[in-house]
Design brief:
There is one protein chain. The chain is mainly alpha-helical and 323 residues long. The chain folds into two domains: 111 residues, Orthogonal Bundle (DNA polymerase, domain 1); 191 residues, hpI Integrase, Chain A (Orthogonal Bundle), CATH 1.10.443. It is 59% helix and 5% strand.
């Protein structure tokens, strides 16, 4: 299992059979998202490039030691890579060595003993209830005065806040995923895992109004092939499925009503954070919120309890006479 991968230190993908097989395993066996597969393959390829320079020629996966991995992590730090990205890269390498253990019987995993870069846990940005009211009031005003685009943007805003789904999940929705009779939506999350999420009455109403506009647009587009995507829930005026970037920009336009730096700093994911925070503020069960968000680990959901505690501390210090 000798390797002599060649390449530059920019982390370009290498023609290493084990890495190619690893990418195929992640995609076909683990059903990881294309984004995850691309990132993991890139990280392991970057490590292979580093090892070629570090060992000065031929080396093997079995011969890698902890010093090489520490050197790799140090090199990432020198390149200015964020700690979170370095932690993901180390996780990718650990997964790769487990893959080699299963497929080739390699018993060593030098990445297992390496210390993961310590991450500072930042509290997620979210909208308070007053801000939610302002944003929705403006979106509803535009939908009443406007046409297809405004009705669509309100429906997306309502669905984000009503369900807490991710950007990619909303952009990938098809008509058969949305059931407005049962008020629920089927979501395909990370790792292609499916979950059912309830949809609130405001979101249902906004979706029905948008569907009427969309169906009218589809009727005027004609029967020509490729003229209108009749499976996608959210489409452009030309009938094409909205890209994630287009969804981001549409929601960003609505969030600008908050003005100043606040309007600039908030983004699509802030609606997901707001969804979770407001549920927990109202006494929702943490595990129920975990399922609604599609988190694999409860610890990921627990960050929202910290957000709620911080908010309560602010209220306490503002209101209590001897705080």
């Amino acid at each position: 299992m000798r390797n002599s991968p060649a390449g530059s230190g920019d982390g370009a993908h290498l023609a290493v059979p084990e890495i190619a097989a690893f990418g195929s395993f992640l995609s076909k066996e683990r059903n990881d998202s294309p984004h995850t597969v691309k990132a993991y393959v890139r990280d392991v390829s970057d490590f292979a490039v580093f090892c070629t320079d570090y060992y000065g020629g031929g080396w093997s996966w079995a011969g890698v030691d902890r010093l090489a991995i520490r050197g790799w992590l140090g090199a990432m730090q020198q390149r200015g890579l964020a700690k979170r990205s370095a932690a993901r890269a180390l996780s990718a390498l650990r997964t790769f060595y487990r893959f080699l253990n299963v497929t080739q019987g390699l018993e060593v995993n030098p990445a297992k003993a390496a210390r993961t870069p310590k991450l500072g846990r930042a509290l997620p940005a979210y909208l308070d209830r007053g801000e939610i009211g302002l944003v929705f009031a403006e979106a509803e005003r535009r939908a009443e005065a406007g046409g297809f685009t405004e009705a669509r943007d309100l429906a997306m805003l309502e669905l984000f806040y009503s369900t807490g789904i991710r950007l990619a999940e909303l952009a990938g929705l098809t008509d058969r995923d949305v059931d407005l009779v049962s008020d629920q939506v089927k979501v395909r999350g990370k790792g292609r895992k499916e979950r059912i999420v309830p949809v609130g009455t405001h979101a249902t109403r906004a979706l029905r109004r948008y569907y009427r506009r969309r169906d009218g647009l589809a009727g005027r587009s004609g029967p020509g092939p490729g003229t209108f995507d009749r499976r996608a829930v959210f489409v452009s005026r030309r009938g094409r499925r909205l890209t994630e970037r287009s969804v981001q920009l549409a929601i960003k336009r609505l969030l600008r009503v908050l003005g100043g730096s606040r309007g600039r700093d908030l983004h699509v994911h802030s609606l997901r954070h707001s969804f979770a925070t407001h549920l927990l503020d109202a006494g929702a069960d943490l595990r129920a919120v975990q399922e609604l968000l599609g988190h694999a680990s409860l610890s990921t959901t627990q960050v929202y309890t910290h957000t709620s505690v911080e908010r309560l501390k602010q209220v306490y210090h503002q209101a209590h006479p001897r705080a």
